[in-house]
């Protein structure tokens, strides 16, 4: 719908400001004809519900590749129960909060905007720093997993110079695909998602005569690696909020975003539980063998070389999909922050394909720098930083419910303020457990990263005052929820 000019509105912006909160009421956005999504993205094709489902699927999961360590850590019973029950403790609350706040603030930047609006711009920047860094660390994992699934076919990729070169080449190729446009990424995600899940459907049919249900109930409490188990569960079931950073690119987000999150949640849980059910029930149990890439060995035992090849290809392509989705989320987060004056304006510039070029290059550089970390170190480090960010999101969610109960929420979780608080308690407890089990090395590295963010924001503001860096505020996003004006 064509928007009216601010000057043609019957009421001035100053008249619409609530003196006590410095906010513009949601109803006044309607009168102004303004929406807090970025109009400059309207000239680019928006993401519809089906590509959105698979973008969320790849933000969170990408399939069962990477869940094998849960069986090694805790055995079949706890692995199955973990991926069936923990979603209700963590994934469902996070997805619901993302749906509510994402439709309340339908613009790029997502959780940065939520925290800024509830706690102020300084903490909004900290949220953006920790979640962006967590996302970059997470993205550094996917080239590693990609090569882990290929090294059985190409042993030279296991270590040394060939592996390093392969990581660099893969990162460059996938970064270029991210640069070419979000619409392309979305439809590529659909193809990759279907291709990645299909071999496990075939495995299920093949495995039926060989299933031994008794294996599913094996649990040895004396041989549980709780740190590996909880980190694996948490890593594979989080990042539902990542899609919020590109909400401004979604077609009709007030309806599309909640639908996409719901369908993606069903797809993710199925994509974990079913392969684990087949893998643990159809082959003799040896927990030590359940490490990254073990599903390809199971495929060979059940179907032969052809199924092994399919699973390896599916795993490789799945990691490509996760890289693309995460890269899109990270880069559009930086674009949203720059549009609100949090980062230098060069981060807000878009390529001819509608993608934030500087954000993509910045995120890709971080991926390359962090690719030397091991699988377990990557998971632990990104989980630690992610936890800090999620605590601020929960606080922002409750505070916005208290401070702005009447503001428009196209999708609202059907609970009151007390229910909102209670809903955040179980995932917060899980966060505290994940933080408590982190290694000393991860704690030190993550704490240093947090301290850098605490100092970086005032440095950016100082450089703005000295005009060393140019910051700008997108006039189409001008409202009193904006952090810097």
UniProtKB/TrEMBL annotation:
One of its GO terms (molecular function) is polyamine transmembrane transporter activity. Residues 1-21 are annotated as: Disordered. Keywords: Cell membrane, Membrane, Symport, Transmembrane, Transmembrane helix, Transport. It holds the Pfam family AA_permease_2. The chain crosses the membrane at residues 73-92, 161-179, 185-208, 261-285, 305-325, 353-372, 378-398, 419-438. It is found in: Cell membrane. It is a multi-pass membrane protein. One of its GO terms (cellular component) is plasma membrane. Its main location: membrane. Residues 1-11 have a biased composition (Polar residues). Belongs to the amino acid-polyamine-organocation (APC) superfamily. Polyamine:cation symporter (PHS) (TC 2.A.3.12) family. PANTHER family: NEUTRAL AMINO ACID TRANSPORTER (PTHR45826:SF4), POLYAMINE TRANSPORTER PUT1 (PTHR45826). This is Amino acid permease/ SLC12A domain-containing protein. It comes from Gossypium raimondii.
């Amino acid at each position: 719908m064509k928007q009216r000019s601010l000057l043609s509105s019957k009421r001035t912006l100053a008249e619409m400001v609530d003196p006590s909160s410095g906010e513009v009421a949601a109803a006044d956005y309607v009168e102004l004809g303004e929406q807090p999504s970025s109009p400059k993205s309207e000239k680019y094709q928006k993401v519809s519900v089906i590509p959105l489902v698979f973008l969320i699927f790849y933000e969170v999961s990408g399939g069962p590749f990477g869940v094998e360590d849960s069986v090694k850590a805790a055995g079949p019973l706890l692995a199955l129960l973990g991926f069936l029950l923990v979603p209700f403790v963590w994934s469902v609350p996070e997805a619901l909060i993302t749906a509510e706040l994402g439709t309340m603030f339908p613009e790029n930047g997502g959780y940065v905007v939520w925290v800024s609006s509830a706690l102020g711009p300084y903490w909004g920047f900290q949220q953006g720093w920790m979640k962006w860094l967590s996302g970059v660390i997470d993205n550094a994992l996917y080239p590693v997993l990609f090569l882990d699934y290929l090294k059985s076919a190409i042993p030279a990729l296991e270590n040394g110079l060939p592996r390093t070169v392969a990581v660099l080449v893969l990162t460059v190729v996938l970064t270029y695909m991210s640069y070419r446009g979000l619409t392309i990424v979305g439809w590529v995600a659909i193809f990759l998602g279907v291709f990645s899940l299909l071999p496990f459907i075939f495995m299920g049919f093949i495995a039926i005569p060989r299933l031994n249900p008794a294996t599913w109930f094996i649990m040895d409490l004396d041989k549980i690696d709780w740190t590996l188990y909880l980190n694996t569960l948490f890593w594979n079931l989080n990042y539902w909020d990542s899609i919020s950073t590109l909400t401004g690119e979604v077609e009709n987000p007030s309806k599309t975003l909640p639908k996409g999150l719901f369908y993606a949640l069903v797809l993710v849980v199925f994509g974990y539980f079913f392969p684990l059910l087949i893998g643990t029930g159809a082959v003799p149990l040896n927990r030590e063998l359940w490490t990254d890439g073990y599903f390809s060995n199971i495929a060979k035992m059940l179907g032969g070389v052809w199924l092994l090849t399919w699973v390896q290809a599916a795993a490789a392509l799945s990691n490509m999909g996760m890289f693309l989705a995460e890269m899109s989320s990270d880069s559009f987060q930086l674009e949203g922050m720059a549009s609100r004056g949090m980062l230098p304006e060069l981060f807000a510039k878009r390529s001819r394909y509608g993608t934030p070029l500087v954000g993509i290059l910045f995120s890709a550089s971080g991926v390359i720098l962090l690719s030397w970390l091991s699988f377990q170190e990557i998971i632990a480090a990104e989980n630690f930083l992610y936890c800090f960010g999620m605590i601020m999101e929960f606080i922002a969610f409750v505070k916005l419910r208290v401070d702005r109960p009447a503001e428009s929420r196209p999708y609202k979780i059907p609970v009151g303020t007390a229910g909102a608080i209670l809903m955040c308690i179980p995932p917060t407890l899980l966060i505290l457990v994940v933080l408590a089990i982190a290694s000393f090395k991860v704690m030190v590295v993550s704490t240093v990263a947090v301290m850098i963010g605490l100092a970086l924001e005032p440095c950016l503001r100082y450089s703005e005052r000295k005009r060393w860096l140019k910051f700008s505020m997108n006039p189409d996003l001008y409202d009193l929820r904006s952090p810097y004006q």
